[in-house]
Amino acid sequence: MKLRLFLFIGRYYLRYFAVIFIALGLFFVSIDSLKYIDDFADSANLVVLFFVYDFMYAMNFTLPISLLLSMAICYLSLIKSNQYTALLALGYSKGVLLRPVLWISLFFSFVYIGLNATPFAYAQEKVEKFFASDSSAPTTDLFVKYNQSYVYFGSINLVRQASKIRVFELNDDKSALKSFVQARQAFFDDDFWILQDAISQDMPNSWNLGAKGVRAKTSPKLPILKDFNPKVLDSFSQAKPSISIIDAIDSLRLLKAQKISSEKIRAVLYALILVPLFVPFVAIILAYYTPSLARYGNLYLLGFGFIVFSLLVWGMFFALSQFSITGIVFPEVGVVLPFALLIGVSLWYYARLNKRA
Question: pTM for the full model?
Answer without folding.
Answer: 0.79
